[in-house]
Design goal:
alpha/beta, two-stranded antiparallel ribbon, globular, 199 residues
């Protein structure tokens, strides 16, 4: 199982307040730049979608959107939009092949236990169509820890993540770093890597 029970328990409990914290994600330049890479009207997966703020943004832009998360309470925040397909499951249940033109995995994969990360990355890659685009936002570094709220974090370095994507047939187009502060008040360096699956 590639979802940590304590992490999911946090998101189920905090869903309403957590939603309000990140409402402007679809207005960011990072989101807009990524969305503009995906073919018009294409199929997009908001992986580890949380309350679906990115999914709402993709939907508003005319994409066919699937929102995938392990927290039922988080998905309840987005189910009012009938056109968005919602899937509540562990990452291990992502068994779709060549299904998406874009996958937005924004700060969700750092919650995957390190030993399970290669298998989950295989599933993400398999779900992406040839020439499709992948964005991974993740905590940069080498440590494995729990934050003050009990959530599991497995950080990844640029070298390791780039190598893992390239081994799976993805070409890395950009890597951006930004210092930020987590929901628990802990500072971290966020890494956003954008890659395209080779056709």
């Amino acid at each position: 199982m590639s979802l940590d029970a304590e992490t999911i328990a946090f998101y189920n409990k905090e869903a309403p307040s957590y939603t309000k914290q990140y409402k402007d994600v679809a207005e960011s330049e990072r989101f807009q730049t990524f969305a503009n890479r995906i073919r018009n009207g294409g199929d997009v997966l908001d992986l580890g979608c949380g309350a679906g703020n990115a999914a709402r943004g993709f939907h508003a832009m005319g994409f066919q959107v699937t929102a995938f998360d392990g927290s039922e309470a988080m998905l309840e925040q987005i189910r009012k939009i009938a056109e968005i397909t919602t899937i509540c499951a562990d990452f291990d249940a992502l068994d779709l092949l060549d299904a998406f033109d874009g996958i937005w995995a924004n700060f969700c994969l750092q919650h995957v236990p390190r030993a399970d990360f290669p298998q989950v990355l295989d599933r993400v890659t398999n779900a992406l169509r040839p020439d499709g685009w992948l964005l991974i936002g993740i905590h940069e570094g080498t440590e494995t820890r729990r934050d003050k709220l009990g959530r599991l974090y497995c950080h990844h370095t640029e070298v390791d993540l780039r190598k893992a994507l390239e081994q799976r047939g993805l070409h890395v187009h950009s890597v951006v770093f930004a210092d930020s502060t987590g929901y628990d008040g802990t500072p971290f360096t966020g890494m956003t890597m954008v890659a395209q699956k080779l056709g």
